């Protein structure tokens, strides 16, 4: 199900067989909410919506991984792509907690490069 902005307008959604990515607008930030397995099948959908979010001109892009059930290397590559500016100059923050999402980021030392937050509310604070 696509998330909506305060006006009730859906901003975008992409779904795969094992997961989905939804784009919403909150307090001037674009939020990508990822659910399910962020793997080779879902990673291109994350890329498309991250590029769309960058084109919207948001001041911040937050990628929320709290609904992710599996984080593959293809998903981590898309997080790095978004962070390094391939989707635009918009700053990127990642919401990740626990062994499913935060632990792989720690093991690959991506927490040294990515701005990782424990909750969406903390990531939205500027």
Describe the structure concisely.
The chain is of the alpha/beta class and 126 residues long. It has four helices and six strands, in the order βββαβαβαβα. The relative contact order is 0.16.
Query: Stretches where pLDDT falls below 50 for ≥5 residues?
Result: 1-10
**Averaged pLDDT, please?**
86
Strand order of the largest sheet: 1-2-3-4-5-6
Helical segment count: 4
Oligomer: single chain
Derived from helix and strand composition plus strand pairing, the structural class reads: alpha/beta
What share of the residues does DSSP label as strand, in percent?
Answer: 25-35%
How would a crystallographer describe the biggest sheet? Answer: 6 strands, mixed
Give the helices and strands as they follow along the chain: EEEHEHEHEH
How many DSSP E strands?
6
What is the end-to-end distance?
27 Å
What value does the Rg take, in angstroms?
13 Å
Helix content: 25-40%
The outline comes out as: globular
Protein described:
- The chain has helices at residues 43-55, 73-83, 98-107, 120-124, and strands at residues 13-16, 19-26, 29-38, 60-71, 92-95, 115-117.
- The chain is globular, with a radius of gyration of 13 Å.
- It starts with 12 loop residues before the first strand and ends with a helix.
- Residues 1-10 have low confidence and may be disordered.
- The protein is 31% helix and 33% strand.
- It is an alpha/beta fold and 126 residues long.
- The chain is built from 4 helices and 6 strands.
- The protein has a 6-stranded mixed sheet.
């Amino acid at each position: 199900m696509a998330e909506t902005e305060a006006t009730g307008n859906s901003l975008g959604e992409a779904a795969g067989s094992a997961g989905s990515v939804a784009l919403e607008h909150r307090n001037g930030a674009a939020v990508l909410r990822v659910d399910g397995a962020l793997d080779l099948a879902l990673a291109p959908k994350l890329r498309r919506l991250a590029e769309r979010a960058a084109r919207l001109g948001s001041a911040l892009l937050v990628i929320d991984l709290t609904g992710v059930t599996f984080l593959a290397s293809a998903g981590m590559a898309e997080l790095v792509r978004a962070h390094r500016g391939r989707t635009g100059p918009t700053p990127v923050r990642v919401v990740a907690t626990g062994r499913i999402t935060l632990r792989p980021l720690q093991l690959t030392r991506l927490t040294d490069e990515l701005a990782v937050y424990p909750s969406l509310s903390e990531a939205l604070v500027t």
